[in-house]
Amino acid sequence: MDTILTNAKSWLTDFFDVNTKAEINELLQNNTEELKDRFYKNLEFGTGGMRGIMGAGTNRINKYTLGKSTQGLSNYLNKVYTNDEVKVVIAYDCRHNSDTLAKTVAEVFAANGIKVYLFSELRTTPELSFAVKHLNCHAGIVLTASHNPPEYNGYKVYWTDGGQIVPPEDGAIVAEINSLSYEDIKFDANNDLIELIDKEVDEAFINASVKNGSFNAKGKDDFKIVFTSLHGTSITAIPEVLKRAGYKNVTVIEEQAKPDGNFPTVKSPNPEEPEALSIAIRKAEEIGADMVIGTDPDSDRLGVAVRNLEGKMEILNGNQSMIMMTKFLLDQRKAKGFTGNEFIASTIVSTPMMDALAKGYGVECKTALTGFKWIAKMIKDFPEQHFVGGGEESFGFMVGDFVRDKDAVTSTLLACEIGANAKANGSSFYKDLIDCYVAYGFYKEKLISLTKKGMSGAEEISQMMVDFKNNPVSALDGSKVVIIEDYNTATSKNLITGVVSDIDIPTSNVLIYITEDGTKMAARPSGTEPKIKFYFSINGSLEKSEDFKKVDAELNAKIDRILKELKIA
Fold first, then answer.
1. How far, in Å, are 292, 350, 372, 429 from residue 313 at the CA level?
2. Distances (CA, A) of 317 to 14, 17, 90, 304, 306
3. Which residue in 491, 326, 283 sits closest to 414, CA to CA?
4. DSSP E strand stretches across 20-126
5. pLDDT tens-digit series, residues 108-124
6. Can you tell me the distance from the alpha carbon of 476 to that of 467, in angstroms, rounded to the nearest whole number?
7. Which domains does the chain have, with CATH numbers?
8. Residue 568: pLDDT band with limits 50, 70, 90
9. Alpha helices in 441-481, H assignment, sequence order
10. Global pTM?
11. Active site residues
12. Which residues have C-beta within 8 Å of that of residue 506, sequence separation ≥ 6?
């Protein structure tokens, strides 16, 4: 507690503004527990950058924590690009303070002699990724907390390729940041270096999105879409992209169309949560729509709902939509003729069905750690190969490589192309998914997230991972665990042969168990939320589509048994 008090009192010097000092003094006098949470650690970069609750303190998002990160990044950029005019581009989403924090970040860059392109209004994360390369920038920043609750904000850093920072740049930048004190931040901007941008970049991004996501699908006039931006940034791009691609029957949920950091109509602006799409699904049932699309606040994730075999709207999980999008892109590539250098990509906690799909098409499937920065790194590391598309279970997908992050804008168009084409051919998105299960195996996934807030929650999550490592799971639903993959040590142990082999992937706090029947369980603390996540994947054989309901029920029962025996549901 002494260290926490010392850290807190250091924020009472004249360097900090009056409001910040008043906030700290209030906590010192009246709320020791809150003070602890704000100062027991510094915010760190996770899989999606730096993300946290807004407020004063080292463990909060504010002008000083973001200013320090920006100062460190500025120092690094100026060291690395000594002979260039260093340029960065900044975007921000609909969250509270995103616009003012983006302005502060721009000012710190400009105070360090760096040219800044600042979007004049909120824009999507995929447009920011696109803009880095389009404007020939050395780095990019987006102010967003993605799908987190309203009290959060965040800071994602992108590099020259348009992907988020990865080794070795990330470690070097973090070291630079950690070497600084808050008093090292330069806030006095050279405003001549800050240029507002909007329509020219918008036009280039929208054109690129239509070019990469449109495949001249049949049946567009007869395909009804309901779209919701969930009060986020995608309203600035998706309706226009769909319009230019030829979709005329698009109903926008107006009560969720206005950007609003309070997200007043949903419990969480996360399309992974069924409740978030409930208004759009009701509208779809009312008007007889074929598909519902909903995106998170910064428009990198998308939720897709389609009509199931009973004709009711059903939300697909991220693995299902990823499989369908990847297969469609592979079909398009195959029609042109494979060149033998194609690859698709996924993550270690996503469905193994991506491997089965790749094998079926004779292409490579590369597997990365969680986070699209690792998929973007693959594209950079293997320039001789052609990236077709790829995704992860958490409702993210990337179409080609013109954007180097999750892209709900182009993926929305791609999902509509798949649905319209299927309907025109007398099928449906859902029926085509079942056909995939027949062809490549019926894989079914389940995600369980446990929220553990604050310092005690972080300790609890840490202990849970230690317990799983020291007392490993021996079987799942009667099937013996045969492989344990420990990404902390980057090793895979075969429990049958005793052979330990290296995993050629960066280390991460993830444990994966694989059983004799192919059941897979992964345990992983979130890099951006106070959560520990458990990912389950099981599979079975589906001989014909008519057996779908029966096999689906069997797989659901298997997952229920596993959750019950592990006591984590």
1. 8, 24, 29, 11
2. 51, 46, 31, 8, 11
3. 326
4. 45-46, 49-53, 87-92, 115-119
5. 999 999 999 999 999 99
6. 17
7. 1-40 (no CATH), 43-197 (3.40.120.10), 204-440 (3.40.120.10), 444-566 (3.30.310)
8. confident
9. 454-470
10. 0.96
11. 146
12. 167, 369, 374, 490
Instruction: Evaluate the omega torsion of the peptide bond into residue 168 and state whether it is cis, within 30 degrees of 0.
Output: yes
The 10 Å Cβ neighbour count of residue 394 is 28
Pick the closest to residue 121 from 143, 141, 99, 105 (CA basis).
99
What distances in angstroms separate CA 71 from CA 80, 112, 196, one per listed residue?
A: 14, 8, 21
pLDDT at 305: 98
DSSP for residue 510? -
Nearest CA-CA partner of 228 in 218, 239, 217, 213 = 239
pLDDT of 47 strictly over 60: no
Residues 6+ apart with CB under 8 A from 445: 317, 319, 351, 393, 535, 536, 537, 538
Q: What is the enclosing helix (H) or strand (E) of 386?
A: strand 386-392
The residues that bridge with 533 in the sheet, in sequence order, are 449, 524
Amino acid symbol at 146:
S
Residues contacting 7, CB < 8 A, separation 6+: 39, 58
Average of per-residue pLDDT values in the chain: 96
Tell me which DSSP letter residue 62 carries.
S
Copy the structure tokens of residue 382: 């293997």
Separation of alpha carbons 372 and 455, rounded Å? 28
Kindly state the percentage of the chain with pLDDT values over 90. Answer: 93
Q: Tens digit of pLDDT for each residue in 220-273? A: 999 999 999 999 999 999 999 999 999 999 999 999 999 999 999 999 999 999
